[in-house]
Design brief:
Blueprint (H helix, E strand, L loop, with lengths): L5 H4 L13 H15 L3 H6 L2 H19 L1
Helix pairs in contact: 2-4
Length: 68
């Protein structure tokens, strides 16, 4: 059996990505994008986490710009 890569074989690493992301925030992001862009639930959940966060930022930017 081959050895595990060194970065996996030992030591503690903080999980990243969606594993450590609060479920409530995912619901907020999905609702926010769905409200503004009318994308489907499956479309929104199929987005990568970073892409979904980026769309939230872009919608917020558009909203701020509109308020000026």
């Amino acid at each position: 059996m081959p050895a595990l890569p060194k970065d996996i074989s030992g030591g503690y690493r903080t999980p990243g990505g969606i594993i450590g992301y609060p479920l409530d925030l995912i619901y907020e992001e999905v609702a926010y994008i769905a409200y503004h862009f009318h994308w489907s639930h499956s479309q929104l959940l199929s987005l990568e986490h970073a892409d979904r966060r980026r769309w939230v930022q872009e919608i917020a930017r558009l909203n701020r710009k509109q308020d000026l």
